[in-house]
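U., I forgot to send this yesterday:
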Amino acid sequence: MTRYLLILGLATFALGANAGENLTFETVDANKDGFVSESEFVSWKTSAGDATPAEALVKFIEIDADASGMISEAEMQAAKAKTDADDGTDSHRSDGTM
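Result:
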């Protein structure tokens, strides 16, 4: 079951909040403090109905590589690059979007 939730979390993260949206770190960092808190991430992931709060929390924990309780822009980009590599897509876009 845990494996299913992780795979589902990766799939929903790869899709972004809404189809066609250019997802940027700033989109998720609602209070613009330079970090994404657990509540910001869960709110963003669940707002489009693409993930449950539990699924969003699993993904947050996965992305928060240093277990600081906050996601930095570098951690977000690393997670996106890993997802893109797993999908075979290019994460190095010239417009700075993820």
